[in-house]
Amino acid sequence: GDAAANAAFEEMMAVAKMGNSGTSTEWNFAAVKCPIPRLMQHIRQLSNVVTSLTFHDLVNYNHEAMPLLHQYLCNSPHLIHLWAPKTYYPIAYMDLFRRIPEPVNPLETYDRAHILAEIKPLLPGVWRCRNLETLHIGFQISGGWGTRHQPEQSRVVFGYIARVLPQLRELQIHTQSGDQVFPIPKLRLSGGFCLLAKLQYLERLKICNSQTPQPPKHVYDIDWVVREGWSAKAREARRRAIAPWGQPIRLEEEVEAKRVAKKVAKRLNRTGGGVGVGEADRVMQWEVSVDPDLRQELQHLGRLLDVKLRLDEMIAPEDGVSNQWPSLQKIAIASDAIYGLSPENEFIRLTMAREYSRRENR
Question: Which residues make Cβ contacts (< 8 Å) with residue 178, sequence separation at least 6?
Fold first, then answer.
């Protein structure tokens, strides 16, 4: 019962506090056996002790647990491994500049007021566990069942992970159910999948499972993963694909200028003669504690410009050396494979899925 679980937690807390500061501690929890949010409140007190944390099931406690998990990750510099596959971690927590547009739900399962009320309290932040090596997690998009995927969503997630967690060795982004599918529509270049290629130490990567097939729409969307994607023909195809991005990027600049102007205006119009914290200030509080270099790296988070700059940075493999995923051994996209395939074989599998999808849709 809860009383026994609470007593067990108090005993574990006492042991943890008795240990030397900085002692490596691994905690493994089944949420169904632990009171929520009491569990998360206890864990928050161990932000400078725990190095490995496993949650077997937080789905049924998502509303209560996610704000506390978010706060924990933003205050836990020593965490090395996080296994929390059955979670719905809100993408809004990673949307540092609030660049993801309002959700579009043609089924109208949520009304606009409900959606905005859902997003507004989710103040973004930067995880302090920058030495994290293992991350298994699921994500939640706002808007309810039937919400359309927007490329800004995946650009935020991929860009955030690539900059905030540079030491990752293993990354698994899990799909929980049909109404919370992680937004990576057909692996399109504009979705920012290539941002993850900044992870120089990444060895294993898995995104989604076989219930969410996402074959690439075009070969150039994903061929940069393998040597074939760096032939003159392949590079020219990618160049042509991103050539029309100029206008959307200019529109982004206009939207960004309006966003900054609105933030400044809110600060100037703040009531009480400049005393107090306005909504814009609350959203941007994360900037105070973030290293200036990291803040600079994150400045284009969620924008198409972020993807364009990354593609421009990529170097063609020569003699087996490139600046994207030099350590990658296994990759699985929309697959139930536990360990995945080599990048070359996964590319073949995905392009075969693409051809099959094209034939089925004729």
Answer: 145, 211
Quick one: which of 228, 255, 195 has its CA closest to 345? 228
Distance CA 64, CA 163 (A): 28
- Which amino acid, one-letter code, is at 18? M
pLDDT tens-digit profile, the chain (362 residues)? 556 545 545 545 544 444 444 444 666 655 444 555 566 666 666 666 778 888 876 766 667 788 888 988 999 899 999 998 878 888 889 999 989 887 766 666 566 665 666 666 678 999 999 999 999 998 877 666 566 778 898 999 999 999 999 999 999 988 654 455 565 656 789 999 999 999 999 999 998 766 554 667 788 898 998 888 888 898 899 999 999 999 999 999 999 998 888 877 877 776 554 444 455 555 568 888 899 999 999 999 999 999 999 998 887 666 555 667 889 999 998 787 888 899 999 999 888 866 656 655 55
Q: What is the 3-state secondary structure (H, E, C) of the chain?
A: CHHHHHHHHHHHHHHHHHCCCCCCEEEEECHHHCCCCHHHHHHHCCCCCEEEEEECCCHHHHHHHHHHHHHHHCCCCCCCEEEEEEEEEEHHHCCCCCCCCCCCCCCCCCCHHHHHHHHCCCCCCCCCCCCCCEEEEEEECCCCCCCCCCHHHHHHHHHHHHHHCCCCCEEEEECCCHHHCCCCHHHCHHHCHHHHHHCCCCCEEEECCCCCCCCCCCHHHCHHHCHHHHCHHHHHHHHHHHHHHHHHHHHHHHHHHHHHHHHHHHHHCCCCCCCCCCHHHHHCHHHHHCCHHHHHHCCCCCCHHHHHHHHHHCCCCECCECCCCCCCCEEEECCCCCCCECHHHHHHHHHHHHHHHHHHCC
Residue identified by tokens 């205050």 is 75
pTM given for the model: 0.84
Q: What is the number of other CB atoms lying within 10 angstroms of the CB of residue 131?
A: 14
Whether the upstream peptide bond of residue 85 has omega within 30° of 0, thus cis, is no
Q: Which of 164, 179, 158 is nearest to 103 (CA)?
A: 179
- Tallying the residues shown for the chain, one arrives at 362
